[in-house]
Amino acid sequence: MIHEFMTCDNWLNPQIDYLVWIQNIRLQLGPVFDNLFLNITAFGELPAATLLISIIYWCIDAEAGFYLFSLNSLGLLCLQIFKNCACIYRPWILSEKIHPIPSALEMARGYSFPSGHCMIAATSWGGLAFLLRKRKIISTLIVLLIILIAFSRTYLGVHTPQDVLTGLVTGLILIFAIHYLMKWCEKDKNRYLYLLGLVNISIILTLIYIIYKKYPLDYIDGKLLVNPYHAKYVAILFCGWLMGLINGLLICKRFFPFETKNITLKTRIIRAIFGLFIFYGIFYPTNNYLASHTCQYRVGIPVMFLVGFLITGIYPFIFTKIEKMITNK
Predict the structure, then answer these.
(1) Cross-strand bridge partners of residue 220
(2) Contact of 114 with 170, CB cutoff 8 Å
(3) 142 with 94: CB under 8 angstroms?
(4) Alpha helices in the chain (DSSP H)
(5) 220, 213, 224, 290: which is closest to 47 by C-alpha?
(6) Measured by CB atoms within 10 angstroms of the end CB, which terminus of the chain is less buried, N or C?
(7) What does 68-118 look like in DSSP terms, one character per residue?
(8) 85-134, pLDDT tens digit by residue?
(9) Other C-beta atoms within 10 Å of 98: how many?
(10) Distance between terminal CA atoms of the chain?
(11) How many CA atoms lie within 13 A of 134 on its CB side?
(12) Domain total for the chain?
């Protein structure tokens, strides 16, 4: 009954028709384009965005990295709030006509609205395009990548147009909101502490809402459409990660800001090498393990908090101290 109701909903019909049209084109083009768009969509995943922003933050431009991490973090927080409030199902659940590419389903197990890939693409790559807006060719190429990531989500059959557009529009709004918020904070450094308190309270309230919210339990042929425990678990991991990331950023910004403009190429390379070790040796395996192995909340939250805090707070603090020690010798 739920399935029939959703497929007959008037607002959904044009979106399903569009997905069916794209699906028919996809079937005619064959697996070559499937693989192409699977690779394109990977640029909208959390590891790719985190690596991009981390290298900028540690080695190229700390101010730009601070802006991008702040933008990306707020986008991810909005994403979890929207997803867990709306609880809208994936296209293939809403209509039997939709048959997504099987290999794309691994990253599409939770609720559909809005698109996480589009939100991440808009707040990481979109934020970078905004910072590089005076370099027309580079910024245009980045915008083209964002458009391709957005299109890939419908091409693969894992999102409706409304999921994609909401993720992109929300990201676009946040690009300007965070830009002006950073300007406001720069007028008084203590405002970063006020912002830190506000963000922590927002994340804690989001956690409480997610943990105690009653999720829909809809079945088709005896099979649960979306496991609410898994959706809740992923959202809670994100909240732990965001809290660590933001606390590291704002504490570092307020109490021990580090230099990127007047450092040597050698220093940049060393920072990047050890940073890559942190990314591939700690963040990447931890993120993959927790995503594929459901742990208790009291384990997942502090672990993801520490990983986020390591990237934006602990590692910059360590390399700053070591570089000062070497300089003073």
Answers:
(1) 223
(2) yes
(3) no
(4) 2-7, 13-29, 31-41, 46-55, 62-86, 91-94, 116-131, 136-155, 161-186, 191-212, 228-255, 265-278, 284-292, 297-309, 315-328
(5) 290
(6) C
(7) HHHHHHHHHHHHHHHHHHH-PPPHHHH-TT----GGGGGG--S--SS-HHH
(8) 988 999 998 888 999 998 888 777 789 999 999 999 999 999 999 999 99
(9) 19
(10) 75
(11) 1
(12) 1
Q: What amino acid is encoded at 306 in this protein?
A: L
Alpha helices in 115-160 (DSSP H): 116-131, 136-155
Type of residue found at 127: G
pLDDT digit string, tens, across residues 96-110:
899 999 888 877 778
Identity of the amino acid at 300 = G
- Hey, what amino acid is at 10? N
CA distances from 321 to 261, 274, 284, 300 (A): 17, 15, 26, 30
φ, ψ of residue 328 to 5 degrees: the values are -75, -10
35 to each of 3, 9, 115, 136, 259, how far by Cα in Å? 30, 32, 20, 29, 41
Q: Which residue has the tokens 């293939």?
A: 92
